[in-house]
Amino acid sequence: xxxxFLKIFIGFLILIVALTTLFIVFSYxxxxxQYLETLTNHLKNLNYLLKSKIxxxxxxxxxxxxxxxxxxxxxxxxxxxxVILPDGLVIADSExxxxxxxxxxxxxxxxxxxxNGFGSSLRYSHxxxxxxxxxxxxxxxxxxxxxxxxxxxHTKDIDxxxxxxxxxxxxIAILLTLLSLIGILLFSLSFTKPIKSLVESSKxxxxxxxxxxxxxxxxxxxxxxxxxxxxxxxxxxxxxxxIKEQKEELSQLIAGLQEGLIVIDKLGKITLSNKSFxxxxxxxxxxxxxxxxxLQDTKVAKLIKQxxxxxxxxxxxxxxxxxxxxxxxxxxxxxxxxxxxxxxxTDRKNLxxxxxxxxxxxxxxxxxxxxxxxGYVETLQTEIDEKHKPFLxxxxxxxxxxxxxxxxxxxxxxxxxKKQEPEFQEVNLIDISKNIIKIFEQSASAKGLILQFNYxxxxxxxxxxxxxxxxxxxxxIDNAIKYTNEGTIQLNITNEVEEGSQPxxxxxxxxxxxxxxxxxxxGIPKEHQxxxxxxFYTVDKSRSKKLGGTGLGLSIVKHIVQLxxxxxxxxxxxxxxxxxxxxxPVS
Length: 587
What we know:
587 residues, 20% strand, alpha+beta, Beta-Lactamase, elongated, five-stranded antiparallel sheet, 14 helices
């Protein structure tokens, strides 16, 4: 038997029993009161009928005649009749000898009749030793009470009637209750049966049987619910089929990826991986394992920490065993999961290393012959005639350009291969910047440019390689002057403090120094901005060559910034100028 059936049945049962009880009590007392009222009125009318006889005999003081008449009438009407004088003296009674009866002046109904014109009382009679209903009326003569007429009736007759009435009411109530319970039983069964069918159908659906249907032969809300349930199962079946197909397709796609893929939950456990990733790490059966156990790389740990705090896609280059990989991560906010994809860039990295080695070796080998060529050119310039001197000038100019390229390549090679350890020490950026501004004042003034330097007075010193910071500033300011024909070159250095920390010379762990070099020059087209830090990349090759650029300056700048664990960004608009933003940590 279902719980809902029991709840409905027991609930209605309690309600019906309560209502039936109230009905019995209310009916019994209501009918009893009604009967008492009717009986009282009947006795009252009997009093009225006796009035003329009582007046006549009381006036004539024919008390014995009146008593005889009352006794005879009392037997005929089966009621007790008593006549009492205003002082309480009983002068006639249908059942007792008046001379032997006590004074009735204090009886409740007598007092009420004399004072109010009518009196009634239901009580035990000490005279005849039975419960009686008394009704009394005053007998008036010329506005004066000459006697009180009282008619009473034994309550045993009333109680008998009450008992019969009570039995009838209880019998009717029991029959009504039984009929109601049968009706409730049938109603509960008809109501809970479709619900039970719905529950059973829901269980079959939860077990995967989407072909389950529910049919009800009725026209009410439950029929509408059943139809909606059938429609829902149809849609669920279609949805699950589509999801299953998508899941299979996704599984095949993930399995077929050449790139390694893993999904990490909020506890750091691997919940999904593909064969490519297992080949990368050389391990299998890694589901449920902590990612650090599988992939012990601090760059990956830092990447995951950044993804959880920044909620954006981040890419870092990592090394696993002898391979190089570009690790791209994304944060899935609803489930607090992280997806990492590993792109194998080993071949490209090895090619870059070969390229770097070639450039490094070529630069080293070219330095000596280029120095010799420049020396000979300078010697020839003192001995050759003016007619051939322009040719030597061209040779000297191109030799100088090649020498600059070789020098920049050597610097870049040293930065990339970290042949020289950086000399980190406390550096005052304001002093370095002032010296560099002096270097460029003449070249800026020659082009009619305004060179400005703005800085925070309370700028803290930073841990850095002063020579490389000088190289960074020189390259950026030199480029700004080269590619600006009019307007202003600005160098701004400020102290950025992360939210929640206070700037302090003693505690600068959370501080960043922002270096901004902005100009009002020609600007950089948007399509070129993502590539300007590549080596030998120039936006306008002819202009760069004319200005003596090597295409390596910004690449050197980027490597210096990375050496100091900083960031560099560029903002530019064609024809309106360019702004380079460098963020360097204080320590």
